[in-house]
Design a protein that fits this description.
69 residues; mainly beta; seven-stranded parallel beta sheet; four-stranded parallel beta sheet; 11 strands; globular
Length: 69
């Protein structure tokens, strides 16, 4: 799943797979997979996921079960 540059989502995301965010999310995200926040990606909310690679901005708590890069 890809949230592209210029896309803004208001609300929570729950997914069993991987998600890449290059746009912005104003809400919480819970994944059973990997979260990638690109250099232009922004999240305002809490994150729970298995693995995360964060290059952008996250304002909230981040809970990663396995690996955070």
């Amino acid at each position: 799943n890809l949230i592209g540059l210029g896309t803004q989502i208001i609300g929570d995301i729950i997914s069993a797979g991987d998600v890449r965010i290059d746009g912005s999310l104003n809400g919480n995200i819970k994944l059973n997979g990997r979260l990638v926040v690109g250099p232009n990606g922004k999240i305002e909310g809490n994150v729970i996921c298995q693995n995360a690679d964060i290059s952008g901005e996250v304002k909230g708590t981040v809970e990663v079960v396995e690996m955070l890069a």
